[in-house]
Amino acid sequence: MTASEALINAPEFTVSELSSALKRTVEDAYGHVRVRGEISGFRGPHSSGHCYFALKDETAKIEAVIWKFAHARMRFKPQEGLEVIATGRLTTYPGSSKYQIVIEALEPAGIGALMALMEERKKKLAAEGLFDEARKQLLPWLPEVIGVVTSPTGAVIRDILHRLADRFPRRVLVWPVKVQGDGSAEQIVGAIRGFNALPQAGSIPRPDLLIVARGGGSLEDLWSFNEEIVVRAAADSLIPLISAVGHETDITLIDFAADKRAPTPTAAAEMAVPVRSELFVEVAALARRTFVCWQRGQEGRRNELRATARALPGSSELLAIPRQRMDAAAAALPRGLSANTHAHFRRFAAAGTRLTLRVLRGQVAQANQRLTVSGERLSHSLKSLLRQRRDRHAGLAIRLKASKLSNAQAWRQIIARDRERTLRLAERARRALATAMQRLEARVAHSGKLLGALSYRGVLARGFALVRDQQGHAVRAAASVGPGAPLSIEFADGRVAATADADRPPAMPAPAGPPQTAAHQAKPPKRVAKPVDQGSLF
C-alpha cells in the first residue's frame, strides 16, 4: 500500500469534531492549574460582565477569561499590569482555534504586588478627596451609644469593653464580622452601613460613635481593610468613625478615610470616652470656683449699689428744673400755634398762584421728552453692549479652538517621544541581557574546566591510587595503618578492598617539621601481620 493510499484510508474529521477532540485532550491532560504572570490587555469587564485579557511573562502569553459569576465573588479584581497567580482550568476556544485559561481564583503575586496595589489604590482614593481633612468629623465628647465592628471571638472586643468599663461605662453595640478571609470586606461594609441606617428613635439606638477594630497581623491578614469598598464606606459614614486596625506600625487605607486613627484597639476605647473619675474631680473643682466667683461678684455689685445710692440726689431736686421748663413752654404754646398757622397759610397762597394749567402741561411735556431721549439712549447702549459681547465671545471661541489644537499636537509629540524612548530602552535591555548571559555561560564553562583540572580523578587516571581506611578517610602515611586493618584502594576505573600486610618497607626519613612531643617520640612503630593468601600491595 502506498503512502497516498494510506492517507486516503485515514478517517475524516469535521472541523467541529477535531476542535472537540482537541478540547477534551487539553482539559483531560491538564485540568486545574496555577499560572503566574502579568495581566495584559485588560480594559475592564465586558458589557456582559465577563472579563477578557491575557497573562504574559518575558517570552510567552496565554489568553484568559473570567466569567461574570466568578468575577463577582473575587476578592482581588484584575488590573492592567498587575502580576498575579491565577487558578483555573485550561480549555480551548474553537471559534478562533486557540487555547485559554478559565480563571476561578485570582491573587497578587507576593508582598511586593500587594504593596504596589495598595499604593496605587491609595493615590486613586486620595485624588478623589476621600482622605481630605475637611471631610473628617469631630468625635463626640461623651457618646451615649458606641458601635463596635469586629470579630466577636477575638481578644479585641474584650480589650475594648474592659477599657470602656474602666474609664466611663457606656452602652456598646457589637456588630460581629469576619476580619480576614473571603467575604470579610463585604461584612465590614455591611456593618458600617447598617449602623448608619439605624433610625434615631428606633428600638435599637443609633450609635453616636463607631469603632472598627482588629488585632495585628501580616499585610495579607489586614488586606480586607485596604479594600476600596471598605474605604468608601468609612468615608461615607455619617457617624464619626475611629479606625483601630492592627498595631501602631500597621497602616491600612481605612486609617486615612476614618475620622480618627487609633494605634491599638485599647487606644480607640481611650479616645472614645473620658475618664469618669477625672471628670467628677474637674466638675467639682469648677463648681467650687464658680460659686466663689459668684459670691465675689455679688459682694462687689452690692458695694457699688450702696455707693451709687448715697451719691444720687432726691426726686424733688431732679424734677424741679424740668417742671419749670414745662410751665414756660405751656405759656408760650398758644402764641406759637397762631404764628405757625399764619405762616403756613401764606406759603399755601403763594404756591396756589404759581400752580396753573399751562405750567403743569409744560412740565408734563418736558418730562415726556426726557423719557423719550433716555429710552433711545438706553436702546442704543444695549445694542452696542450686545455687539461687543458677541465679538468678544467669537474671539474667545477662536482662541480656544486654536489652543485645543496646539495642546493636542504637543501631547501627540510627547507621546511619540516617550514611545521612541521606550523602544530604545527595551532594545538596550535585550542586548544587555544577551551580553550578561554570554558572560555567565563563559564563567560556567571556565569553572567546569578548572574543576576538571583540579580534581583528584585526573591524578588517578595517570596511574596513581587513593587509599582509604574503614571510615572512608584518606590514608596519608603508612604509620597510621595497623596490622590487619581493612583498606579500600581506589583506581581510576574502580575500587578494590584490601587488608594491610604485617611486613612493610622501612620508613622513609620524615621531612623536617615541627618538633614532636615526648609521647610521640617514645611510641614504638607498629608492625602489621601479613595475612594468609594475601599478597603485598606495596
Compile the SSE list and pairings.
Layout: H1 3-9, H2 15-30, E1 32-40, E2 51-56, E3 61-66, H3 68-72, E4 83-93, E5 98-108, H4 110-127, E6 145-150, H5 155-167, E7 171-176, H6 184-197, E8 209-214, H7 228-236, E9 241-245, H8 253-257, E10 260-261, H9 265-272, H10 276-311, H11 315-354, H12 357-454, H13 456-461, E11 466-468, E12 486-491, E13 494-499, H14 518-522
Parallel strand pairs: 3-5, 6-7, 6-8, 8-9, 9-10
Antiparallel strand pairs: 1-2, 1-4, 2-3, 4-5, 11-12, 12-13
Give me some keywords for this one.
538 residues; OB fold (Dihydrolipoamide Acetyltransferase, E2P); 5-stranded mixed barrel; 5-stranded parallel β-sheet; disordered C terminus
Element order, helices and strands?
HHEEEHEEHEHEHEHEHEHHHHHEEEH
- How far the N terminus sits from the C terminus, by CA atoms, comes to 72 Å
* Oligomeric assembly: single chain
- Relative strand content: 15-25%
Corresponding CATH architecture of the domain at 143-274:
3-Layer(aba) Sandwich
What structural category arises from helix and sheet content? alpha/beta
Radius of gyration: 51 Å
Number of helices: 14
The major beta sheet can be summarized as: 5 strands, mixed, barrel
Number of strands: 13
Uncertain parts? 509-538
Report the CATH C-level class of the domain at 143-274.
Answer: Alpha Beta
Choose one word for the global shape: elongated
Q: For the largest sheet, list the strands in their spatial order.
A: 1-2-3-5-4
By CATH, the superfamily of the domain at 143-274 comes out as Succinyl-CoA synthetase domains
